[in-house]
Design brief:
Elements (H helix, E strand, L loop, with lengths): L6 H8 L14 H11 L6 H26 L3 E3 L2 E3 L5 H9 L12
Antiparallel strand pairs: 1-2
Helix pairs in contact: 2-3
Length: about 110
């Protein structure tokens, strides 16, 4: 991981079967943003829009599966056991080893 903590950096360790290389163009967040801009462009080719939309869905699917694998309760793999994580904020706290940011709640 070489000091990187992004999903793409951690993924080979926790889920080597999930590989973004299978997606032609949309392999990272920047590419997904650029693809989105092209998809919403009214002058873009319809076939191109459909292909980029398919790739964006595949990219999002892989990102989602990666997070699910990362936070799966009691996951055992490559010597790492991940406990049940109750919130995304807690996940970030665990990964970054920083104090958790208070979550603001409205009492009703």
């Amino acid at each position: 991981m070489k000091g990187a903590w992004s999903i793409k950096a951690v993924l080979p360790t926790i889920a080597p079967d999930l590989d973004y290389a299978c997606i032609e163009e949309v392999q990272d967040g920047t590419a997904a943003q650029m693809a989105y801009l092209e998809v919403i462009d009214p002058q873009a080719d319809e076939i191109r829009k459909q292909e980029l939309s398919r790739q964006m869905r595949e990219y999002c699917k892989l990102d989602t599966l990666a997070v699910v694998r990362l936070v799966k309760p009691g996951r055992v793999g490559t010597g790492i056991i991940v406990p049940t994580i109750s919130s995304f904020a807690e996940l970030i706290h665990i990964i970054m080893k920083t104090p958790p940011t208070p979550v603001f709640r409205i009492n009703t």
